[in-house]
Amino acid sequence: MNHTVDTIVIFVFSAFVLGIGLLFARTGRNLKSFFAGGEAVPWSIGGLSLFMSFFSAGTFVAWGSIAYKHGWVAITIQWTMCIGALITGLWLAPRWKATGNLTAAEFIRSRLGTQVQKIFIYVFILVSVFIKGSVLYPVAKLVSVSLDLPLVPCTIVLGLFMIAYTAVGGLWAVMVTDILQFVILSAAVFILLPLSLQKAGGVDQFIQHVPSDFFSWFAGEYTIGFIFSFLIYHICYIGGNWTFVQRYTSVDSPQSARKVAFLFAALYLISPVIWMLPPMLYRSINPTLSGLDTENAYLLVCKLVLPPGLLGLMLTGMYFSTSASANTALNAVSAVFTNDIYKGFLKPEATDLQLMRVARLSSWFFGLGMIVIALLVPAAGGMVEVVLSISAISGGPLLAPPLWALFSKRLTGKATLWISGIGLSANLFFKILAPWLLHFKLSRTLETFIGIGLPLLLLLGYELWAVRTSKIAPEYEEYLNNKRAKKAEQLFVKDAERVSIAQQNRFGLRIIAFALVFTACMLFILSLLTTSGSILTAGIAVIILFAAVIPWKAARRNAEQIITPEKV
User: Fold this and answer.
1) 464 vs 444: which has the higher pLDDT
2) What is the average pLDDT value for the chain, to the nearest integer?
3) Pfam families under this entry (predicted)?
């Protein structure tokens, strides 16, 4: 098979994305602009970026594997993310913005104390590197298999490129490329879906050639208990994951933070159906896959129905979706390290220039760690096992206490450490020691339920005890005082900084418009070269071209709202 056209498509889009990162090198003047977009990012951009940050090639590999084996339950699982985002939008996202903190770690220090923050930072960094390293593996595998390239060099090269524009451009570079990645991936899937359905022989043939329970809401180890536990986990994960909190704090108000989560929820209501149908259709075309081979279901259906060029577009979308997820984590981990470790503990008097240098170097350091983890994923049992296991072990103990602290004035730092320590210890025991010592292994449902349920139960028990004893956390009073002081400081934002933030946002919106035009032009070219789906490809290109008008007009409105220092 000739992969020349696919390779060119991947290379051109990749070079374009790196170029965007370099364009934003001049916009990151301080930590607020580099890590939080000046806290004035448009909520629509933040919502799309949050969606792509949650997305990765792991969605196609892990959930695609479940969709191939069990069918509709893969969609049921992902709808828990929609419900989790709705609850986040109603109660959690506005609370995060109202704290006035740049990162979740900064809130933990302010509300629960420095000791809690230190321990949580170390666990968060470790977990983030492991999870995002694991999602780099599947996309390297996809590119390797599709283009007949060695897996290890693919992993290293893709990983190095993946972290390059984050280290250079900061949050706006990540978000702009998130939008581009969303458009490319959506275009690729909308082309893939009708071609896959045609190959399967239509709806009737598809239904006849899959198992009778293929459209059940629950199947196999993914029972109603697992779905409920996964829902609770996703409330904590979407509402409290430090990389996502950054999206809620980078907008201008609690109302905008709520809209970020609601847009994410709307996208996750629709997208799972569109994303998961191709591997489900492939089950009717080729029902012989088993074991870890089911992780290749999405790739195989792409190779079967997509002609050269469009296959490269799909691989580009998968790769970019992974880079979106990993780059968001890199930006957040780097923000925590720079803002809360280097500036908070090591060198409080550091200048903006020194902090920016540390921010970029730490992005590279943690990115290289992710590459190492990606190389080790096959030995750990594959993508599904790694991600679900790490989530079950660390999700509840790491995410639940800070979320509880957003609402509780009684939770103390000492209680937080005890609850998190008990939760982590119990989860590690059941995951690692119990199978080894007792020859006993929890089901996926119980593993997830205990992982998230035990910390919540302990938090509830402590809260009820504190209410009964009328105990108010001493850290809470200090938190309120710090919050009032920070709010007073924010009233005196320098005019030059206000103008700089507005100019950065205008620049970002213009780059988004330019990126959409570029993507539309690439699709027009592919529609002329492809052997099938040419009309569909050209039609999607037209839609993207018209969509470019939206950010361009938004940039013009933003320009009109810039207030010069003389007019203040």
Assistant:
1) 464
2) 82
3) SSF
Provide φ and ψ at 219, rounded to 5°. -160, 150
**Residue pLDDT, tens place only, 229-272:** 889 988 998 999 887 898 898 888 899 999 999 999 999 999 99
Reported as a single tens digit per residue, the pLDDT across 367-421 is: 888 888 888 877 665 555 666 677 778 888 999 999 999 999 999 999 999 999 9
DSSP letter (8 states) at residue 566: G
Amino acid at 64: G
Distance CA 483, CA 463 (A): 23
Q: Among 193, 188, 196, which Cα is nearest to 320's?
A: 188
Alpha helices (H) in 429-494, listed in sequence order: 444-468, 474-490
Tell me the two tokens of residue 5: 């056209």
pLDDT of residue 210: 94
SS3 at position 564: coil
Query: Which residue type occupies 12?
Result: V
Phi-psi bin for 201: left (phi > 0), alpha (psi -120 to 50), beta? left
Pick from 59, 62, 65: nearest CA to 275: 59
Q: Tell whether the model's pLDDT for residue 26 goes beyond 60.
A: no
What is the Rg, in whole angstroms, of the alpha carbon atoms belonging to the chain?
23
CB neighbour list of residue 393: distance below 8 Å, 6 or more residues apart: 424, 427, 428, 431, 451
Q: How far apart (Å, rounded) are the C-alpha atoms in residues 138 and 391?
A: 18
Residues 517, 522, 525, 530, CA torsion sign: negative
CA neighbor of 229 nearest in space, from 83, 397, 447: 447
Helix (H, G, I), strand (E, B) or coil at 113: coil
d(CA 535, CA 522): 14
CA 33 from chain centre, in angstroms, equals 20
- Which one is predicted more confidently, 25 or 343? 343
d(CA 177, CA 327): 10
Query: Which H, E and C letters describe 143-191, residue by residue?
Result: HHHHHCCCHHHHHHHHHHHHHHHHHHHHHHHHHHHHHHHHHHHHHHHHH
In whole angstroms, what is the distance from residue 330 CA to residue 359 CA?
Answer: 10
488's tokens:
């007073």
For 37, 44, 252, 320, the CA distances from 176, given in Å and listed in that order, are: 11, 12, 18, 12
Q: What is the DSSP string of 396-443?
A: HHHHHHHHHHTT-SS--HHHHHHHHHHHHHHHHIIIIIIIIII-----
Q: What are phi and psi of 222, to 5 degrees?
A: -95, 75
pLDDT tens figures, 36-90: 445 567 898 888 878 877 776 667 777 889 999 999 999 999 999 999 999 999 9
Q: State the DSSP H helix or E strand holding residue 270, giving kind and residue range, or none if neither.
A: helix 254-285
Cβ burial, residue 171 (10 Å; 0-12/13-18/19+)? buried
Residues in contact with 219: Cβ distance below 8 Å, sequence separation at least 6, in sequence order: 70, 71, 72, 73, 213
pLDDT tens for each residue of 511-543? 889 989 999 999 999 898 887 778 888 999 999
